[in-house]
Amino acid sequence: MALNAPNEVSVTEVRNALRCPRIFALGRRRGRPVAFPVGASSLGATFHRIADRAARQVATLPQAVERLAAQASRAAVADALGAWLLAFLVDELEQSPALASMPSEVDDLGEALRELARYLAAEVERSDLRPADALRSLLRHTELEVSAVLGSAQPVRVSGRVDAVHRRSEGALDVVEYKLTDEANQELDQAQVALYRRLLRECLDLEAEPVILRFNPELATTRLAGPAADAWLEERIVPMLDHMVAWATRPEGAPATTRRDLCASCPLRTECLATYRDAFAPRDAPPAGSTHLRPDPEGGLAVTTPAEPRVPAPRDAEGHAEAEKLGKLIVDKLRKLGTVVEVAQRTVGPTLLGIEVVATRARVAQLDRLAGDVEHQLADRHVHFEKNEGRRAFWATRKRPRRVELAELLGREAEFLRQRPGRFVVGEGVDGSVVKGDLSDGSTSHLLVGGQTGSGKSVLLRAIVSSLCHYHPPSAIRFTLVDPKRVTFGAFAAAIAPHLEGPLFFDSEAFLPELESLVAEMEARYERFEQARVQDIHDYNETAPEPLARRVVVVDEFQDFLTDKATREAFLASVQRLGAKARAAGIHLICATQRPDRTTVPGGLKANLGGKIALRVQSAVNSRIILDEVGAERLLGHGDLLANLGHGTVRAQGPLV
């Protein structure tokens, strides 16, 4: 429906404005409302067609319904009505072969139609009429066009189409909306049906109670109290109509949405980026801003380009000022202790400051002896002294650490990450450089991550996954996520859903067959490589008509799979096989634990997980288990980490997602 006048809006546009004012404004600029797909069922239109067709043919019911006597049981009526509705579904399947390619969704649609039949049977049972006559009395209107002038400051014409109007046995009317979405859109659905109640009253002088029938596919019925719906409409919708007139005239003035879940699947995301230059984290920041298979404005699917992360100026004025003060303080402390030094270099990192000093009128040995006194005097700053061959430096924590944002790191390393799938970022080093890795590198093809509670391990895992998929479509890299504690990937999984190979795994019994199938997939890929006379997935994909996606398995708290003897051996056997030879096949493991001890991380497993990342752990023994060296027990937590990605151990701050 094309609506050109600023003071004319559709109910669909009102829903869009409630979701996101910018979606409404951009849709108006395009000349038609945007069919926003978040939470929508792929078969919702089919359900509505069947419900409408049934209501329009209620005058000529099949004999199975007509023969039902007044005393027929509710179950018998439901069965007859269910068969009637499913016959329409059969017609739809015959007319649309595409439906046959979605058997699971069609099964859900069939169950939703049976639920509708049960609902109608329950309403029919309350009547004294024969079921066929009661049904004709119940289904009063369907797909009813309504329109009325509303508004507070100025008149606005609102138009829409009601799914159905039902007349209950006692004579009261219901304005009914059918929904095949989950309850994430409940507020929008309530607003819509409350608005239709008002339009029916203004347009046709009908007083109807708002009802939402949600098929998911089981039926959940929401009946709103009429006065409460009216009050909510006056408080929320009517004032917004005035703003919608302004947004229709000046789209650039529309504010951003408050719903963080919408931007990842928005069909106008690219246009929004071009129109609204302000940084908007739900839209621009990873993982929402990554390369996704997203709905387009025409209702199809398209691989969108990733959001270009905004890279701020590298200057850290606050950190440099603090480093200068710290350097003067250390020089002064050493002078009072009888050693004259100068600051040779200052290093400003996100959480640490490094002050390299050189002795000018003293021997280096004297500086080394007095360094312990300086550490003691500045213990509140967590100062520690390091010797690295001929260099001497004091390191201290910043009074106010600088946030490290994943979007910034992705922007700084965009060229590196784009070159091939499998490249990722870990964090920002103490010298300001980006610590990064590559799963195609033999030394980092699989990762072992360890860190105690509060160390930032879960955030780091999400950051690594986000960086892996930000610049690459689902056809290039896919993930299998395992989350036994059910806290690491919950909401995050929805943001990268197009890149997921399947649902989240929560227990070993469900995951072990998937792990074994990956071993079989590895062997099948090597057979392909042999036939194509190539050595690895990179060479294969350069010439293959159907390139293979890299498969990345992320297992958080993998120690849960080792506590049960029934799963321990099978888990270790599969992990060791994949760790030993899956790199060239493009299958990679990222295994994380909060208890890095010898039981959890046996030697065979550790040897096959070449990349090592340690966040704060409880003891030096735990640090050695992960890194083969101490140090992780002294980390600060909250993303402070040590990583060995094939080029020696470096310290970094993990990014926020």
Structural class: alpha/beta
Order of neighbouring strands in the sheet with most strands: 14-13-21-20-19-15-18-17-16
Strand tally, please?
21
CATH class descriptor name of the largest domain: Alpha Beta
Give the end-to-end Cα distance, rounded to a whole number of Å. Answer: 40 Å
- What's the pLDDT, averaged over the residues? 88
| Helix proportion | 40-55%
**Number of helices, where a helix is a run of at least 4 consecutive DSSP H or I residues:** 22
CATH superfamily grouping of the largest domain: P-loop containing nucleotide triphosphate hydrolases
Largest sheet: 9 strands, mixed
- Within the CATH hierarchy, at the fold level, what is the topology of the largest domain? Rossmann fold
Model regions low in confidence, pLDDT < 50 over at least 5 residues = none
Number of domains: 4
- The coarse silhouette is elongated
If you had to describe this structure to a student in words, what would you say it looks like?
With 657 residues, the protein is of the alpha/beta class. It has 4 domains: 1-33 and 254-312, no CATH class; 39-230, Alpha-Beta Complex (Lambda Exonuclease, Chain A), CATH 3.90.320; 317-397, 2-Layer Sandwich (Threonyl-tRNA Synthetase, Chain A, domain 2); 422-653, Rossmann fold. Helices cover 41% and strands 20% of the residues. A hairpin with a 5-residue loop joins strand 7 (293-295) and strand 8. The mean pLDDT is 88.
